[in-house]
Here is the input.
Amino acid sequence: MVGGHPERCVLVGAPVQSGTHRLGCDMGPSAYRAAGLGDAIRDLGIPVEDAGSVAPVPFAASAHPNRAIHHLAETAGWTLALTEAAFRHSAEARPIFLGGDHSLSAGTVAGMGLRARAEGRPLFLLWLDAHADLHTLDTTTSGNLHGVPLAYLTGRPGFAGYFPPLEAALDPARICMVGLRSVDPAEREILRDSGTRVHDMRDIDETGIVAPLRDFLREVASADGLLHVSLDVDFLDPGIAPGVGTTVPGGATFREAHLIMELLHDSGLVRSLDLVELNPFLDERGRTALLMADLAASLFGRRILDRPTRSF
Here is the structure.
């Protein structure tokens, strides 16, 4: 154990694309592997196991009256499978979940919630995303279930009978959202009284990210918490990360993103990581996959002086 965390990492493929209408996210795990993510972490002296990819399990979800919703049973099946996988793999390793659309976090975070409960510790979540993903099954108008994981995980009403029962709900006050810049009115209403820390891009532009992130990490440390990080490609500016179907201008820069990863590494608190919404079909010669792999390597200890030079 290093800093109270398992020394080994395990790569877990989560080729989920049921949460979106656009095809291609299921190729994400292969793209991360081709980008050399595992080798980049091994080069840091950290043992890495590749556990292959998870598959959804059957789940008998009821038909929902919101007719916009699609692939409900399949997404629920992914949630059930990833909950089990996150809990199992986190017993002796730090899992990195290779997505897949962001609906996968309904399972990964739920599983880490079970792990935190088993260890008698609170779970904290750092959500790096342009979107809040706080829609319920009743409020989503797109029907895309990559927009609902945080509503499910925090125990919002309306998921019973449609998603797996949530055994360890996440306290909204233990969530820190960074990079928001596309939030719907229904989500804004939920956030207003939730106690969730929210740092949108204007906040980052005005005050920077170091102080608020360090404040959150101090809270995690003082509570002896488990920290799960969920990194969405659209957290980044589409100018540097085009391989995503939900591009929103004005995202984090290369330097801001690496700084966040380096601060997370310095904290020694990160227990698990999601890499989500990579769509290789929309990427440019692997550019986004390589950047996301580099960011993960920074989180696990690669220093700026060790960063490779690439030409595209």
